[in-house]
UniProtKB/TrEMBL annotation:
Organism: Pelovirga terrestris
Protein name per Swiss-Prot or TrEMBL: Cbb3-type cytochrome c oxidase subunit I
Superkingdom: Bacteria
Main location: membrane
Keyword Heme among record annotations: yes
InterPro entries, per database record: Cyt_c_oxase-like_su1_dom (IPR023616), Cyt_c_oxase-like_su1_sf (IPR036927), Cyt_C_Oxase_1 (IPR000883), Cyt_c_Oxase_su1_BS (IPR023615)
PROSITE patterns: COX1 (PS50855), COX1_CUB (PS00077)
One MF term in the entry's GO annotations: heme binding
Length: 471
């Protein structure tokens, strides 16, 4: 029987562009971290913290994160279904629209067009582009699954479909607005309803864009990298359905101690705590898959990225539910602890797994072995150290910040002014900026390694290309 001929050129393109936007995201993040230390680095009206910060988050989530999702989903779905991508033409249109959307979002945010909704700052014309982009992508992936030649649906396909459907619903509902001009609209929701819908979207965007897709990648690339099957497919399915059911109820834990109805807050808090179980189901599945294979943490650079990635996911899903408890939320909410928490997920969990996937893909889409494994190991240590410095400095400063905000004198007056509190943050903001620079250097090492692989990497053994079904 002839092996299926998979489409790889489109995967190359998405990998390349996701790397471009990834560098932009980290670079802008480093810039805004220094702007917080030195306000003179703000250059109004365009290059100020207020305009660059949403570019940083959106380039990271949608440029790097979603760009990588596009590449990995297109790569994985063909192999898991043992059939070529349903429509190469749609995928090429998707690539063009993806870059056009990212550029349009960056330009409009620089110009100050902003809905003020976290993770959904783009105005309505950009929203329409995103909807078309996601519909095209979803149709292509779902049709490939429908046309599959492999009867069994591996766990990665379940997470992929959840992401496609979940993002579509969340984004569409939160985008409902009334346009009043070419680049201005007002949400159809108001007051507490607006806040509730926004964080139903915001937290579940993390679920469907920054949790389900990386888990799909992890479950695919860990067995491929180690040569050992996943420990339990049954456990992965149980964890999947539990995660999908529980996650959708947790968004209001961002709104504890607000005018949101108390029962909604309590519901979100309860489901957030329960969410530990399905999250750690995947963590345990990953660890148990390494039974008898832990030596690969030393010998296989891909495994280091994957296992540290799932470890950061596990820590993230312990820290998050802890923050969803009212008493703890009252202490740390609005402090530097919160960005420390989210960046452990983005810089640690999502990025490490995505990078492992790209390293795995390189020989299979370019026909060349990775240029330098020592450089890949250097990249690993730089980004892990940079991320730990970044997040740890924010956790410490967040606790200090919360303590100073809550300190009271005997007469009930506040011990510290807001300015005094801010002054104490400067040493930690310096540490954060340094951690960001280290992380950025790691990314540049990664980009160099990818570039040299394409240009000078050694050709892999013919057997590898045969397994991939390439001509």
């Amino acid at each position: 029987m002839g092996k299926p001929q998979y489409h790889t050129d489109i995967v190359k393109s998405f990998v390349n562009w996701s790397l471009v936007w990834g560098v932009v995201a980290v670079l802008v993040g480093v810039i805004v971290s220094f702007q917080m230390i030195n306000p003179d680095l703000n250059y109004p009206p365009y290059f100020t913290f207020g305009r660059l910060r949403p570019i940083h988050t959106n380039a990271g989530i949608y440029g790097w994160g979603v760009g990588t999702i596009f590449a990995m989903f297109i790569y994985m779905v063909q192999r898991l279904c043992k059939t070529p991508l349903w429509s190469l033409g749609l995928a090429r249109f998707q690539l063009w629209l993806f870059n056009a959307t990212i550029i349009a979002a960056a330009v409009t945010l620089l110009l100050g067009y902003n809905t003020t909704l976290e993770y959904h700052e783009m105005e309505w014309p950009i929203d329409l582009m995103i909807v078309v982009l996601w519909v095209v992508f979803s149709i292509n992936i779902i049709m490939t699954i429908i046309k599959r030649k492999e009867e069994q649906m591996y766990i990665s396909l379940w997470y992929m479909m959840a992401a496609l459907i979940g993002v579509a619903i969340l984004f569409t509902v939160n985008a409902l607005a009334v346009p009043v001009s070419a680049f201005k609209s007002y949400s159809i929701f108001a007051g507490t309803n607006s806040a509730n819908v926004q964080w139903w979207f915001g937290h579940n965007a993390v679920a469907m864009a920054l949790t389900a897709p990386p888990l799909a990648m992890f479950y695919y690339f860990l067995p491929k990298s180690t040569g050992v099957p996943i420990y339990s497919h049954r456990l992965s399915i149980i964890a999947f359905w539990s995660l999908i059911f529980m996650y959708l109820w947790t968004g209001a834990h961002h709104l504890l101690w607000t005018p949101i109805p108390d029962w909604i807050q309590t519901l979100a808090m309860a489901f957030s705590i329960m969410l530990i179980a399905p999250s750690w189901g995947s963590v345990i599945n990953g660890y148990m898959s390494m039974k008898g294979q832990w030596h690969q943490m030393r010998d296989n650079y891909l495994v280091k990225f994957l296992i540290l990635g799932i470890t950061f996911y596990g820590l993230q899903t312990l820290q998050g539910p802890m923050q969803a408890i009212r008493t703890f939320s009252a202490f740390i909410h609005y402090t530097d602890w919160v960005p420390g928490h989210i960046h452990m997920g983005t810089m640690g969990w999502v990025s490490l797994v995505s990078v492992a996937g790209i390293y795995f893909l390189l020989p299979r889409i370019y026909g060349r072995e990775v240029y330098s494994i020592p450089l890949a190991n250097l990249h690993f240590w730089l980004v892990v150290i940079g991320q730990l410095i970044w997040s740890t400095s924010m956790w410490i400063s967040g606790i200090l910040q919360a303590g100073m905000w809550n300190a009271m004198n005997a007469d009930g007056s506040l011990t510290y002014t807001f300015t005094e509190t801010m002054v104490e943050m400067y040493p930690y903001w310096w540490i954060r900026a340094i951690g960001g620079v280290i992380y950025l250097i790691g990314i540049l090492v990664f980009i160099y390694n990818v570039y040299m692989t394409v240009q000078k990497g050694k050709e892999p053994a013919p057997k590898l290309l045969e397994v991939e079904g390439r001509a």
